[in-house]
Design brief:
By secondary structure, this protein is mostly helical. 72% of the residues lie in helices and 1% in strands.
């Protein structure tokens, strides 16, 4: 008791740290800090005004995007459901409460009140969830009826808080991880359901004031619980997402999202654990195809997500205009081929691993293109039969989407020693942008041609 009575509180330690930073900060950094504060206030004020202002146009109420110019709120509900599912999954993958090794060793492992030390971080994460949700709701206002614009923004902000609070309660060991998985699954199932209801002509009303208020009341309980019970987050919980946070930082610094994708994929495979070994065929090409297929059999979550998304896209292409249907089909084929082309990515970005397989690059790429090509063919067939685009645009969507995905998945490792252009506004990594344009450049060209042919 005597030891814990002499330990300073978390607030006192934060005050000491801020005082130390102010005393030892160079004088040249203070004007830059003032500029950053003013810039943050300016950007924050502009963002707040943009969130609750009305857009000048609504895509769902104007040609040539939609075949029937009648407005509906179904697309707004679809955007909100997708955003909630993606936000909840991202928050669960990232922790969401994480801390660095120095904070965990020098602060959280001491007798300092852990809840008081983590509470500002938890509050900041909840505020970030509300802002991200409001942004998703603002994007939903571009495809919804005029009377539901502000309601969608407020509702999505509330759901953004809930998307962050639920994974926090899992970290606090108050909720089971299955609760988060159920919420994500319900949101993904609701997407094709809402689109199908709108396709058959049933009116989907926008969220009313009672729904918005009820949503804020519903998310208030988990948010307050996360703030009060964050002292239950132990070392295994806050370290679980530290590697993901490092992957996010490294991806932004290196402009290479594959670093983050590799971290997330490694965590997923660790959660799956071991599986019974399978006997591969004796022929080399057949063995590569079988191993690429086993990757998706042992990790079926992306396959299920793609199947649910295909149902929603099929209904979407049946209600939009032919040019929009052609572009949607092209993007769908490209996305499906990219998801199923993970084997191509692993071989192309790791030459040492490709050498161990003992065959030429042409044979490797041919064998590992069978599974993504078959998946893209199924996606093109589903969206082509349901849509209103011409046969030429469907064929172009299939070939263009597969070619763009193949170019992107067979891209060599990113090199950072290329040309950098010095301009008056800073450095522009020309060679890095050229490397990242491999794949999306062909996709843009094919999208323009598909819209013209439709």
């Amino acid at each position: 008791m005597a030891l814990t009575g002499t330990v300073r509180g978390a607030r006192d330690l934060r005050a000491l740290r801020h005082a130390f930073e102010r005393r030892h900060a160079p004088l040249t950094d203070r004007p830059a800090l003032a500029v950053l504060v003013v810039l943050g206030v300016y950007v924050g004020g502009g963002l707040a005004w943009w969130l609750f202002s009305l857009p000048s146009t609504t895509f769902a109420c104007a040609d040539p995007i939609v075949r029937d110019p009648a407005c509906t709120s179904a697309w707004g509900w679809t955007v909100v459901a997708i955003a909630v599912a993606a936000g909840t999954a991202s928050a669960r993958t990232a922790g969401p409460v994480t801390c660095g090794a120095e904070t965990a060793f020098w602060l959280l492992s001491t007798p300092v009140d852990r809840g008081a030390a983590l509470r500002p971080r938890v509050a900041a994460l909840l505020i970030c969830g509300a802002i991200a949700g409001a942004l998703a709701g603002r994007f939903a206002t571009f495809v919804t009826a005029p009377e539901g614009r502000v309601a969608f923004t407020c509702l999505a902000a509330a759901l953004g808080v809930g998307a962050v609070a639920l994974p926090m309660l899992v970290q606090c060991r108050i909720l089971a991880p299955a609760v988060v998985r159920v919420v994500i699954g319900l949101c993904l199932v609701a997407v094709p359901g809402v689109v199908a209801i709108a396709a058959v002509g049933v009116t989907v009303p926008p969220p009313g004031p009672s729904i918005v208020v009820g949503a804020w009341i519903a998310v208030a309980a988990p948010a307050v619980s996360a703030l009060l019970r964050c002292d239950r987050i132990a070392a295994p919980e806050w370290r679980a997402g530290s590697d993901t946070a490092v992957g996010v930082s490294a991806s932004f610094t290196a402009l290479d999202p594959s670093l983050l994708a590799g971290v997330v994929e490694r965590k997923v495979w660790l959660c799956i654990g071991s599986r019974r070994s399978r006997v591969l065929p004796r022929r080399r090409i057949a063995a590569l195809v079988r191993s690429d297929l086993l990757r998706h059999v042992r990790r079926p979550t992306p396959v299920l997500v793609v199947c649910v998304a295909l149902l929603g896209v099929a209904v979407l292409t049946s209600v939009v205009s032919p040019p929009a249907a052609a572009v949607v089909q092209l993007v769908t084929v490209f996305t499906v081929a990219t998801i199923f082309g993970a084997g191509l990515r692993d071989v192309s970005r790791d030459p040492d691993f490709a050498v161990l397989l003992g065959t030429r690059d042409t044979h490797l790429h041919l064998a590992l293109s069978v599974v993504p090509g078959s998946a893209a063919l199924v996606a093109a067939a589903v969206t082509g039969f349901a849509g209103s685009a011409s046969m030429a645009s469907v064929v172009l969507g299939l070939l263009g989407g597969c070619a763009a995905a193949y170019r992107m998945r067979t891209r060599p490792p990113i090199g950072y020693d290329g040309l950098i252009l010095e301009t008056a506004v800073g450095q522009i990594p020309v060679d890095l942008l050229r490397q990242w344009a491999r794949g999306p450049d062909l996709l843009v060209v094919c999208a323009w041609l598909a819209a013209v042919l439709a």
